[in-house]
Every structure is written in structure tokens, then in C-alpha cells.
Protein: aspartate--tRNA ligase
Organism: Eleusine coracana subsp. coracana
Amino acid sequence: MSSEPPPSASAPPAAAAAVDDMSTDLAATTLSKKQAKKDARKAEKAEKAAQRQQQQQQAVDADDPFASHYGDVPVEEIQSKAVSNRVWSQVGDLDAAAAGRTVLIRGFAQAIRPVSKKMAFVVLRQSMSTVQCVLVASANAGVSTQMVKFATALSKESIVDVEGVVSLPKEPLKSTTQQVEIQVRKIYCINRAVPTLPINLEDAARSEAEFEKAEQGGEKLVRVGQDTRLNYRSIDLRTPANQAIFRIQCQVENKFREYLLSKDFVGIHSPKLIGGSSEGGAAVFKLMYNGQPACLAQSPQLYKQMAICGGYERVFEVGPVFRAENSNTHRHLCEFVGLDAEMEIKEHYFEVCDIIDGLFVSIFKHLTENCKKELETINRQYPFEPLKYLDKTLKLTYEEGIQMLKEAGTEIEPMGDLNTEAEKKLGRLVREKFGTDFFMYRYPLAVRPFYTMPCYDNTAYSNSFDVFIRGEEIISGAQRVHTPELLTKRATECGIDVNTISSYIESFSYGAPPHGGFGVGLERVVMLFCALNNIRKTSLFPRDPQRLTP
Amino acid sequence: MSSEPPPSASAPPAAAAAVDDMSTDLAATTLSKKQAKKDARKAEKAEKAAQRQQQQQQAVDADDPFASHYGDVPVEEIQSKAVSNRVWSQVGDLDAAAAGRTVLIRGFAQAIRPVSKKMAFVVLRQSMSTVQCVLVASANAGVSTQMVKFATALSKESIVDVEGVVSLPKEPLKSTTQQVEIQVRKIYCINRAVPTLPINLEDAARSEAEFEKAEQGGEKLVRVGQDTRLNYRSIDLRTPANQAIFRIQCQVENKFREYLLSKDFVGIHSPKLIGGSSEGGAAVFKLMYNGQPACLAQSPQLYKQMAICGGYERVFEVGPVFRAENSNTHRHLCEFVGLDAEMEIKEHYFEVCDIIDGLFVSIFKHLTENCKKELETINRQYPFEPLKYLDKTLKLTYEEGIQMLKEAGTEIEPMGDLNTEAEKKLGRLVREKFGTDFFMYRYPLAVRPFYTMPCYDNTAYSNSFDVFIRGEEIISGAQRVHTPELLTKRATECGIDVNTISSYIESFSYGAPPHGGFGVGLERVVMLFCALNNIRKTSLFPRDPQRLTP
């Protein structure tokens, strides 16, 4: 398949660049953000100088008969000037079957390797796929030495269009995902990256094993710290592992929705701006709403219950939840994506547990079976053991859990809550004894929110549960109080001003079915499924007590 | 299929109620919220008195050999006491094929019609489905006159369990969706509604035609105003039209996701808490974030672009967006659900328009073909003409639009924006001339946000577009600026402090592909598809400048 040259190239003959070789491998971790900004500014200046130099060069390169086969495309040419209907290929689709075909691709210039004045390699990347493009100066191919020079002078991560012929390499390629090469006929730069990036993508993509191996060999590789990654998230997101993580996240949400829709749940959207103080407690973001005090919802809890009162029978919501907690841990965020569900129950909140069992088995199966490429990609940088799960999850009472901890030497206040440490220990104990994750149910009423239904036989306990995955609490759920009298009583006992939630409580006076539900954080599901060590790795632009940008 | 009696009934013989008949048809619209609250309190007192009376009655009803076949189930019995594995039927599944079967259902008591001391009807509702339950006192059936009395004394909208035998009525039933009846054998009240509801569901479900017909007959029916509906949203949501509207909304979102996923988009979640001032302008909710000034995102715009810079190629997001605008119109909300997408483009933003064409045709087709029941239900209360749309939407330039308006006598400032009135008029003109909705593109740069790409041939115009449905602007989109230099220039020209968006602008220095995208409000799509007259009808719990509750 032959494709026309881009209009940009044919209209005004684009200039060949003459930027001198510049190393783009600069250690980034050691740079403070300020320093990096300074560098970026310096780099911009350098780039502008290069552009000027390039313009001067134009006259010289006019001698090149192939000058129209390469160059920087001016921004005006990419301002929706025309629709050429040229056919573009996807890097990930390029395989042996494409050999001999002329293809046109656009991608990030991941690596640029000059071999000689007459030869160079440029690796182009699209998402998780990379392909090696080969430039060899040859009059037959319409490739000049100036064109090779232009390619070798490209800055890493620039956006580059390549037109060329797919060929099969003599030896297997190690550094690209695609096992074909492109013999470049034309190459244009669409948008230059600054020559000095604050993060080097190779550094950001290394596994712990690579670091160890290098250290054993006496080599010191640059580590990109978590904060540097997040400061320059738009670069960091390009690592193969990050490309995979957020595709996995999207699949978790898809399967969450699909499964619940198949069980007659309706997806809803509840307001995030609410009056009063959400569910009480201090961890609330407050603001003024057209002169009225308001806050950001800590969960869709009260609204999904009102939707049940509104006759929706089974509802779910995927949306942001806000917690103004000053928790600087590996598993807390100030804003995360809540996966919430609420459903009528006929007689027991185990009906909710059954839905959870089916739901998470369906999510985990889907990931394991249909996201192999993504999981392997994550595994390469962050190796992990596949998650073990049962079709029907083990259930333990809170009392049994406390007892197991006690027998293992950890004394827990029987009516108190488990701290993270005790939780993790219990997770380990259960895994050792039963080889699986588990539901823990019948928590003390005092450690659950006011809307939790007390146990029928002992009101010191509640009809509530948590689910543990890899020994960490991930899902919380319960039967809810469905009568206004008990709800008012419980709210008052929990110190909540019932006036601020009056329309919520009223909803239960107008006919309210017994119901229960659960909530889980999307980021935590991905973090625990992939055994990542920090929830910031599974939030696209995380918010923690210190971080509000980018 | 026979089902066991509920544990509640067999364990402690439940008491038969002896509440006197009480009319529950009370006009609600004329009540202020305060009055309604007072009434609700009064009603609660009345109910408690009724409960006491009922307890006293227990002794009397002990004579009834069928006393265990009916009664109020105490809340303790519904606190997850046991799992009985009883089989429950769905009202919507009850058809002639079920005749002769014993079924167990739970629903809202929508209507209670006493016929005599020996006979009564109770209509049970689940979501959009209703079924008539018949009580006839008979020793053979285990139904006593006390049981009939208990049923007639139920308050409307109470949650009721019925066990009975499905039978075929002699004549077609007009007031229920299901064409079978249930011959009641057992009836239990699970959770009573207050006797006097602030909204009567029948009133809330009437169409304009019914009001007119009644008025012509000299009858005055109660109208439930929009504010009353929203004040008591958990009742209002039970009307058939509202049950349908939010199911349609869920389907729009599903199809939006499905279509974009099929086109290799990745679903993302961007932060709603952001530093700086979002996209500028006054319509921003501000708050303090752990001591730092922050605001709520007016759209995921900057983040979906950073995801494109992060190598995601095509992304979409479904999530809340916040606008602190003081707009009290039929089509503005302070919080709504944004459907946003952003994608790399190769050369022209019409590539985005093509995606929109395919996307909305797929959504509209899906609704028309697979949501017939919901659309008919909405149509019964709010009649509307089906939406007309083409597979390839008509495109007009802004200049052409202005010209059409001019020819029809409406003079518009050629470089200004259209107001709603002009928009609607243009929509009418285009429909008259072309019989369709349309894209309008090439808007003046000055009326579009700073990140909009100017036109290559005239920078007073921009590579932007709006889509009109039923003559109202609904989708907005554009090519975006993808170089840091132009972006800085445009932000500065638009009066935005570039320091507050520095990490956004920086993202374009590290390799940024040309891209474009669009955004649309979920509530507006549903409103315009169903030709509803107010966006509050398509928001579950709407937020406008006046409303922050429930």
C-alpha cells in the first residue's frame, strides 16, 4: 500500500534540521523540580537556537535533491489544513505479514541511534508497541546523508511521522516489541520535545532486578523517584508498565459495570456537592456553594440509599470520592474513584456478599484471560504473584479473626477496629491456614458508620463485612438501617446533627425496602491485583495531602 | 412453585394490624416544605399511635386462626437473621405462563382498594412493573376478614411481601402493567410508609393531556411542582417516567463507553480537586486543600490532554464537572456528568467529528431499538417526537450560520457568540431547510477557550465546532493547541495566569501529538433525546444555584 507524502512536506519543501548531536540521557532523579524547570527553560532556549540554525541551514540543504523527504513540519501545516485521506498504520499491527508494504506511522521517537553518517536507527513508539525504523543513505531509496543527519538530531520523545517499507530483520530484535523494521523513505518531525527531558524513559521503565544486576556489575543506574515521576506525569505515563496499569484499571471498571448491569443494576450519578457534612467526621472538604456552606461527598452512600428508596432496586456508581484525611500512607488518597453498589435485600446481607463473589471472580477472570499483554508488561517492571481467589470466598466472623490474632500473639481490643498492621497479620494468618483471601463479617457496631444495621441478636455487633485481598482490607459493605426511627437514633448516638441529613432520613418514611451494599476503591483493586506497593501508581494524577498538581 | 412462609411470620406469630382507613390522597403541591415536614411529623405520631393500637389488638386477633398469614414484620426479623433460600419472583416476569403457580413477591404498595369487608385489592409495584393482588376472605384459602382489614389499612408505598397464586383475570387489567392477578394467601408489611405522603405518586405521574382532559371535564387535578418533586425526590423517582429516564441515562453512558472502547479509547479518571483556577473564568468553586487554595475542575480538559501527552492516544472520561455559574435556566446545572473524549488527530479535527458521528448514531440507534419500553413509558407522561438524525451529520460553518440568521432577520455580531435564543432560531432554520440537526464549525477564536487551535488561514477563527440537537447546542469540540509556545501565548491573551497551569503547559514540551476532542453533558443528551423541557428532569439529584439538597 503506497501512501501520498504528507501535504506539509510537498507544499513548502520542509527544511532539514542541522541540530548537533545532543545527549538526551540526563539523570533526572537528582534534580529538584526547580532545577528541572530551569533546565527546561534552558532547553527551550537551546531548541529555539537550533530552530534558527535550521532556518539558516535551509539554503544549504536546498542542494539536497531529497530535501522534501524529511524536515520539521511547521505547526501551520497541522492546523487542520486539509483532509488527505492518507492511510495510517498502527505500530502494534506491524508484523511479518506486512513485509514489503509501504506504511505511514506517527509515534514518539523513543530512541535515536546514529550508526554512521550514512545510517541511523529511530525507534518509534505508540502506547505499548515499538518499531525500529532504519535510515540508510541511498539515492535509490531517496535518502540523503542530510536526511540521516536530520534523523539523528531529533530529540527523544519528539512526535515523528515515518513513511517506509516494512522489512524483516536478519536477527530477532531485542529492543522493540515488533519483529519487523521499517526502511525509511520519508521522515518528518511534527512536534519537537525539548532536548533535555526531566525524566529519561529508559530509567523510569527499569525493574528492580535490572538495578540490582547493574549494581552487581558495578554500574550505577539512575532511579526515578515517585515524586519526580508524578511531577512529570505526562512523561512517566509513557512507560510500558504505566500504559498497562491504566488499561487494566479501565478494564476493572468495564467489568464492574458489565457484571452489575447483567444483574439488573442501574448505573447512577449522585451529586458530589452536598449540604451538611456528608457522613460526618472530620475528613470532609468544605466550601461555599452560592453562599451556603457545602462539602464534597465522602462517598455516594446516602444517595445510593435514596435511589433504593426511589424504587431503583439495584444501583451502582463509579465516581470520585473525597477524603480530607491527612494520611500519608501507601494506600490512602484524598481523592479516589469509588466503585459503589447498593441493592434491595430480601432477608440477609449475605445476598450482597454473593454479588461481590460473582463480581470479583468475573473481574479477576477477565483480567487474567483477556489482559495477558498488559499483565506481562506490568510484571516486567513490577514482578508479582498472580492473585489467588475462590469462586466462593471464605467467610470468618470478626470474633474468629480476633481469636486467630490472639492465638498468634496479637491482642486486639475485642470491640475496637483493626489497624493496618493487625489487618495484614490476619491476612497472612488466614492465607497460611486456608490459602485464600476472605470476607470478615459481624464487625463491632461502634467501628462502623451510623447507617449500618446492628445485628439482630447482639446490637454491639453489626451486619457488616470487609473483604481482604492479599491480606489488605479492600471492600467494605453492610446491611443498612431502613427505618427512620432507628436511623435517627443511630445518627444521634454517633454525634451527627440529624438536621443536616434530614432529607436523607425522611426518605425512609415514605416506603423503604431493606437493603445493603458495598464500596471499593478502583485504585486499590488495581494496586492489590497487581501487587503494586503504592496506590499512587494506580491513580492517573494522584491527590494526597501534599500533592495537588499536576 | 410453592414457597415457605417468611421466617418472620412463622417464628413469633405476627400481629394483625387494625389501623383505621386513612385516605392517603393528599394534595402535595400546595404545601410548602415546612408544612410538609409538619405533616410528616404529625403522620409519624399517628403511625405510632396506630402501632400501639395494633399491639392492643393482638389479643383480639389471637382468635383468628389465620393470624400468622398476615401482619407487620418487626424490624428484628429483617436484620439478617437467617438465609431461608426462599425463591422470589419479579413482578415484571409474571405473565399468563405463571398461572396456577404460587409466587412470593416484595414491592411498594402502590394502591389499596377496599371493596368490602371480605374483599380488597392491593397493587404491588417493582420499578416500572405493577401487579394486582386480590384478597378474598375464605377459610379454604386461609384468608380471614381480619386479614382483608389489615391489607386495606396498609399505607400507600409501604413495602409489602405477598405470597399467592397467579391467576388470569376475566377482563384485561387497565391499571397494572402485568395481565395476571395474584390470589393472596399471605401478606406482610415489611416497612410502613407514613400514612400521608408529601407527594401522591398518581399526581406526579400524570401527563399534560390528562390534566387538560380533567379540566375540560371540570375536574381539578393536583399538579406536583418541580420543586416539590425535587424536595421529595425519593418519592418522585418512583414515577414510571422517572424510572425510565434514569435507565435511559444509564444506557447512554453504557453506549458511549462501549462505542469508544471499540474504537480503542481508554477510560480514564482525572482529578476533580485541582490547584490554580481550572480553565480560568469566574465560574469556579474554590476551596482550601490542606492549606493550599484549590478549586473543582470545570471539565477534565487539561487532564485528558495530559493523558494524550502521556501516550494514551485516545481517552474518554465520564465524571462530574462543576460550574459555579449563577444560571437559572432550563439547561444549566452547577454539577453535571461530563462525557469527555480526547484523541490524537493525524491532520484534521474532522477526525474527531467522524468519531462523534459514529458515536451518537450508535447511541441513538441503541436507545430506539433496545429501550422501547423505557421510551414508551416516558412518552406516556411527556410525549415527544422521535429524534431525527443522519448517519453523517450536516456541517455548516459559523459564517454560514450567521448568514442564515441574517437572512431570517436576526443580526449577529459576526465575531461574537450565539445566545440561546439565536441558537434555537438557527436550529429551526436548519431543520426547515435541511430537515436535520448539524455540526457548526469554525467558530470565532475569541469565543472559544484558550487551548483551542486557531485556523491555519485566519487566526480570528478557530478549529472548533458545536453539535446541535433539536436546535440546541449540545456537544462542543475542537482541535487543541499542541505546542507550548502557542499555548502560553493563547493563555496569556485570554488573561490566564500561566503560572497556575505550568505543569499543563510543560506537558507539551516533552513530545505532544496533535489532538482534538469534545465534551457533552450526559443530562443534556437525555433531555434532548427525549425532548424534556428541563435538565432537572434528567439529573438524579440536581444542583442549581438554589438547590444543594437533597
Chain A has three domains: 70-191, 201-236, 240-538. The longest strand of chain A covers residues 102-116. The radius of gyration of chain A is 29 Å. The CA atoms of residues 275 and 294 of chain A lie 5 Å apart.
